[in-house]
Give the backbone structure.
Amino acid sequence: MSDRESEDRRRFLKAAAGIAAATAVPLAPGRASAQAPSAAAPAPTRLKFGVVGLNHGHIYGLVAALIRGGGELAGFHAPEDDLAAEFLKRYPDAKRAADERAILEDPAIKLVASAGIPSEREPLGVRVMKHGKDYLVDKPGITSLEQLAEARRVQKETSRIYSICYSERFENRAVVRAHELVKAGAIGRVLHVVGMGPHRTNPKTRPAWFWDTKYYGGILCDIASHQADHFLSFTGSTRGEVDAARVSNRNHPDHPQFEDFGDVMWTGDGGTGYARVDWFTPDGLSTWGDGRLTLVGTEGYIEIRTNVDIAGRKGPEHLFLVDSKETRYVDCSGQVLDYGPRLVDDVLNRTETAMTQAHSFLAAEMVLKAQAHATKGRTHGGHA
């Protein structure tokens, strides 16, 4: 048995044990808290990383993931004083660089993380890779098909890592657990994936670039990046096509370049998928969006409520599993999040355990094609 086969076998057995434990958890009104367990002691430092671009709050998730994996924040660059000040509140020992070159040209820094303005993320990634460093970027990591072609070309030339963090998979315990259950055969072969990604606009807190597709790539490019990643990863698809896509501005006449609704249908070589994303989460919800993910299998289905259970259970990360024997609720509060540690492993060992490079780019390609070919619905109260 090869090393890879042995590792796959170990993961299968671990996931199978998780299913056995889940069987004992009934579908009952109450549950243990789904909040993250108490923070463990920082992992021993294994590499130094830098940060360039703080324009989205997801940067804090990227940094936290790397630190969990043994990364040490060596420095950061951000031209915006207010964003830099906020970052220093969280990481007071971080050194602010006056120019990104101080990060890119530091031989001790092996990886650069970014949550800059979306349209600027790929050009930065190209610079990072050309400086011989690996790149971790918030989604959307690429905002046009032209950028995608360039990123693929430079990545192939340099053999560096260009990892787009699809956080609604890597940083959500219920989704991580669902992958283990699916790999262990809990619902048979996954046939279809449905992803819902509603968001709250919070208009008073949004910068100018948020309202213009020129900067964020469009609603499918942006939000539906997560749903594309779910579709590909759960169906095991390595190829995919866009069957149909729509985008529109339904209710934001003051921002004509904004898209507040979109949906898309995909077909892959491992299954099919549908996604709907929007900016219509009402203020009465306790979180920014009632995200949902449904996996339809040959022998059952899984539903994940990623952020909130409106039926009453507290916290995020809720997983329901239905098979031929029963319906059960799976408590995911103790699930380990291993994307950061695996990515650090990949940087050090030149492997692809966190995510393959092909998948990172393919998920981006799926939404970029959907965005490019989407029909435009009527705006401001009209029907799509």
Observations:
- The first helix runs from residue 3 to 23.
- Residues 204 and 305 are 27 Å apart (CA to CA).
- The two ends are 55 Å apart (CA to CA).
- The first strand starts at residue 47 and ends at 52.
